Amino acid sequence: xxxxxxxxxxxxxxxxxxxxxxxxxxxxxxxxxxxxxxxxxxxxxxxxxxxxxxxxxxxxxxxxxxxxxxxxxxxxxxxxxxxxxxxxxxxxxxxxxxxxxxxxxxxxxxxxxxxxxxxxxxxxxxxxxxxxxxxxxxxxxxxxxxxxxxxxxxxxxxxxxxxxxxxxxxxxxxxxxxxxxxxxxxxxxxxxxxxxxxxxxxxxxxxxxxxxxxxxxxxxxxxxxxxxxxxxxxxxxxxxxxxxxxxxxxxxxxxxxxxxxxxxxxxxxxxxxxxxxxxxxxxxxxxxxxxxxxxxxxxxxxxxxxxxxxxxxxxxxxxxxxxxxxxxxxxxxxxxxxxxxxxxxxxxxxxxxxxxxxxxxxxxxxxxxxxxxxxxxxxxxxxxxx
Length: 386
Description:
Radius of gyration: 21 Å
InterPro entries: Chitinase_II/V-like_cat (IPR011583), Chitinase_insertion_sf (IPR029070), GH (IPR017853), Glyco_hydro18_cat (IPR001223), Glyco_hydro_18_chit_AS (IPR001579), Glycosyl_Hydrlase_18 (IPR050314)
Largest sheet: 8 strands, parallel, barrel
Order of helices and strands: HEEEHEHHEHEHEHEEEHEEEHEHH
Structural class: alpha/beta
Low-confidence stretches: 1-27, 368-386
GO biological process, one term: chitin catabolic process
Mean pLDDT: 91
Helix content: 25-40%
Number of strands: 14
Number of domains: 2
Domain GH18: 30-368
Family: Belongs to the glycosyl hydrolase 18 family. Chitinase class V subfamily.
Strand content: 15-25%
Strand order of the largest sheet: 1-2-4-5-6-7-8-14
Signal peptide: 1-30
Shape: globular
CATH topology of the largest domain: TIM Barrel
């Protein structure tokens, strides 16, 4: 009985928070986002920007000696100019950092007032001089309380400087799928609320052969739901909302790539099938959607859509690949829209095939309607709650 009462109380509290966010935080324009980087194999001139509202150029690099930023030539003023030719209304943001940049590099900058100021001034100057509409912080792999505190301080000072020098600049960040990446460290949700226009939730890379425990089992790396675990896109979104970030500041990440596993037994080929680890025969183990579609065509692979996890997978022989095809993308975007999220974003555009996933996402969002009933929103976020 106590469990039921506690659950009911939590349900009322979260529903109230959701209702407040819907009433008091006016919806911004929906985000149909996509990241692009120069080495993706897709020229900027070939980007179909009509399918997006926000495009992110990745990445500006942080100089650890000077704390200033630099951009590759492809992310200079030519990128905003190029993508606006097809869609003059698209918002273009310069993304900073990326997964390959150690968290300590950001933390060393963010722990001192002088280096924070240098970083912030450099970012704003770079955005304005190259014609960007905003800045996106891609500081990943935070794991300590100090890193979280320094992140919060950085965001507070960044927004204050933007407000003073360039009030029209959009300020966003791409962060972990959950506000609590480990039992020790929690993201500074108040600073995120106060200072970011929206938060890109990286709801992918949950599992991969390189960092999964033994014995190896095939797993989708970006499932929307997971009946065996709390590691999923919907669980992460729910956790961010329960931490106090309103739905209309959250943008759901979807991957345009997958991970390849080697089956131990070709006859056992579903989710959680025994595996010998990674299979590098397709896309060096991390194939793009384009490479996955070629694999399916060339190998006559079997394709499965699993509606419980909301994922696709395919297999041929001992090769098993978990990924998102159009079915999974459509379901995820519908979930995002119906949950009151601000939108979705994709990593990355060069991995799509003939814009199939991008077009599916854009069309799906355009045909949906947001849910404004907190009771229904709770049920969407907690499909397995009792």
